[in-house]
Amino acid sequence: MCGGVFVDATCGEGGHSEAIASRLEYKRLICIDRDQEILEVARERLSRFPRVSFYHATFDQLPEVIKDAGVDGCDAILADLGVSMYHFTLHEKTKGRGFSLQDDEGLDMRLDKTAGITAAEVLNTFSQKEIADILYTYGEEYDAYKIARAICQNRPFRTASQLAKVVLKAKKSHGHHRIHPATKTFQALRIFLNKELEILESFLPSAADNLYIRGRLAVITFHSLEDRIVKRSFQSLAKEGKVSILTPKPLLPSEEEIEKNRASRSAKLRVVEKSV
Predict the structure, then answer these.
(1) Domains, the chain, ordered by start
(2) What is the signed CA dihedral for 247, 29, 31, 227, rounded to 10 degrees?
(3) Of 35, 157, 175, 206, which has the maximum CB count within 10 A?
């Protein structure tokens, strides 16, 4: 794949793109992200590399992006579905975004601040059943109805920290936890608001269609909802004869990698290669 067209479909701060540009010969490197602010961080990070293009778009808009880039296909596409740690670090650019449980300045949770409704609007206007359904469907939260009831009893909500405290109390959680008891609630709201699963469903077949023969599509997931979609989509594409699955079982991070990067502990990598 040296000298090929590479796409980082979820560019974020540009970490993967920097690794690609530093270690591989490439003809074009196309970076896509739906968050304009974080895309600017990547643009600055990658400014020393030639032939890098940046697109503010959702990754299921890949066909339109590569057409605009003036290429007719890709040699490699990477999609890392984890939310960048940039969003969870409270600083001037992220305060009020509502991704961090400690954020006491807002409750937005949109990756693209120009699209859709905010988390605050959902929590303050949706019915108890609608909120419970979101928490259960997108967060696999088994206390969904208990939390939804507490949310409706304590609204209006204005900040992420306020929401985290209400969920903590609703779950009656005490002592030390590996992850905060409100994590699934925040995950569910983020996935719902940003239509993450719907976009993923749309992206996978179109990504395969836009690969050159023997081109590869690699997807990194971080929770079971995403991984099931990727696994089933890859199996379906393989049955159609469009791709070969290179990872019958997902590749997992080593203990050494987890030690260096705790965020990688739940990562799963699946890869397919274009057949026809």
Answers:
(1) 4-82+196-274 (3.40.50.150), 95-193 (1.10.150.170)
(2) 0
(3) 35
pTM of the model: 0.89
Q: What is the pLDDT of residue 65?
A: 96
Q: Burial code of 81-94, b = ≥16 C-beta within 10 A, e = fewer?
A: bbbbebbbebeeeb
Assess contact for 38 and 17: CB atoms under 8 A.
no
Which phi and psi angles does 5 have, rounded to 5°? -95, 115
Report pLDDT for 93. Answer: 55
**DSSP 8-state assignment for residue 83:** P
pLDDT of residue 114: 81
Cis bond before residue 63 (omega within 30° of 0): no
The residue type of 193 is: L
CA 168-117-230 angle, to 5 degrees, is: 75
The closest of 271, 83, 45, 20 to 7, measured between CA atoms, is: 20
Alpha carbon 202 to its chain's center: 14
C-alpha dihedral, 44 to 46 to 47 to 52, nearest 10°: -120
Residues lower than pLDDT 50 in the chain: 1, 90-91
| Number of Cβ atoms within 10 Å of the Cβ of 142 | 11
What local confidence, expressed as pLDDT, does residue 48 receive?
A: 95
Assess contact for 131 and 148: CB atoms under 8 A.
yes
The pLDDT assigned to 176 comes to 54
> 122-138: per-residue pLDDT in tens?
999 999 999 999 999 99
Token representation of residue 14: 């540009």
**Residue 70 to residues 30, 47, 67, Cα–Cα distance (Å):** 11, 21, 5
